[in-house]
Amino acid sequence: MKTGELNDKESATGSRYQLVPITPKLIAMDRASTVAPGIDPALTAYRPDSYRIGPGDSLYITVWEHPELTSPAGSQQQTAANGRLVRPDGTLFYPYVGLLHASGLTVEELRVAITDRLTKYVEKPQVDISIVSYASQKVTLGGAFVKTDPQDITVTPLTLAQAVGAAGVNAQLADLSDVVLRRDNHEYHLDLDALSHAQQGPQDIYLKGGDSIYLPYNDRHEAYVIGEVLRPQAISFKTSDLSLTQALGRAGGLNQTSAKGKAVYVIRGVEDMEKAPATIYQLDNTSPSAFAVASKFSVKPGDVVFVGPAGITRWNRFISQLLPLSGLISNAANAQYNLDRDSQL
Question: In CATH, which superfamily holds the domain spanning 41-48+137-215?
Answer without folding.
Answer: Outer membrane lipoprotein wza domain like (3.10.560.10)
